[in-house]
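As a representative case, we now present a protein record of this kind.
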Amino acid sequence: MNIATEKPRIRGDAIIWVMILGDMTNFMVGFAYYGYLRNDNLTLFRQSQETLSIPIGATNSLIMLLSSWLMVFALASARAGRLKPASNLVLATLVCGLVFTALKAWEFISKAEQGINFLTNDFYTLYYTLTGLHFTHVVLGIGVLAYFSYALRSKKWTEKNLFYFETSAIYWHMVDLLWIVIFTLVYLLP
């Protein structure tokens, strides 16, 4: 299919856009509540924030940005009918997701070993809620990426597959965007 001759349309399934709207609304409520509680107890939030690893958070940010970049190229390859390179790019995106989850899991375990948990204080309640919910989204995305890495190599690839692949790419970009906001808000905000 030639993109230049394709009729303009909204990419992906309408359901993904409804899901993204719902997810973004949930996260925005979480971000607003974080801001409200942070404003109410700035000293506690700053002290708690200092226990986070900015290098790990920044590394995870770069990993998520790289994964989105790879997904853009994977989608372009799939649209051009270059399915094996598209599959390899999806596999590379999946590896980024795995590295992200490994680093995040290490961070969670490190906090647990320090006796820091969900109920330690308001900062950690929101830290675990926001990053844990995001972590869950990444894990689900990894499953979808594994499917498409395999499907792109199958002989039965169709336009309908491409439509759902576009939908999965939209989801993955949402996950990337959410992490950038979480990293900025939770790790970096002075």
